[in-house]
Amino acid sequence: MTIEFATPYRNRSQIPPEPGVPYFIEKGQGDRAHLFGDLITIYAGGEQTENTFNFFTCEGPRGDIIPAHSHPDTYEVFFVTDGAIRLFVEEIGGEQHEKLLTSGDFGFVPKNCPHAYRIERHHSRIVGVAAGPSGTFERFFENLGTPTDEPGLPAEPVVPEPHRFGTAGERYDVRFLPDHQWRTPSATPPSLP
């Protein structure tokens, strides 16, 4: 049995809207949103943890690199449970790194570090956790994307209107970097002859 709550974000949610309430989320449940070709599922967020951390998954098909961005006040981790992702990270001093993460691999992104990722294999899943002094950003996904009750990937990619990147980003500690250039070997597709 799963208890449902009304929250400021949804009419029905398995996540209570306040801290201090124990709860359980069964497989296939959680607050879900479609963004680009991915399914993001939120299991815990700022409201439940007094803005100390969040816990979510991102599932998707092989695709394009997501936009470069940073979180001024939030640390983020990537733990791959299925498939593979390529994580791109730039240190504060400008040195760039990329790493192919496969099942069981972990990546850490400090606050203020530009980063992006690309899902490299179909049916990949990332467990994400973010924490920082200004709160958490889990509600960014449904504010930029589209909330859904569907358990699977979107039938068509959900591509937000350009102005929504700025408004949702400002609210949820996500700073998009549209002019950022990745200089690592796998960041850009090879040139055609």
UniProtKB/TrEMBL annotation:
Where is the Cupin type-2 domain positioned along the sequence? 62-119
Entry-linked Pfam families: Cupin_2
UniProt protein name: Quercetin 2,3-dioxygenase
Q: Which organism is it from?
A: Saccharopolyspora ipomoeae
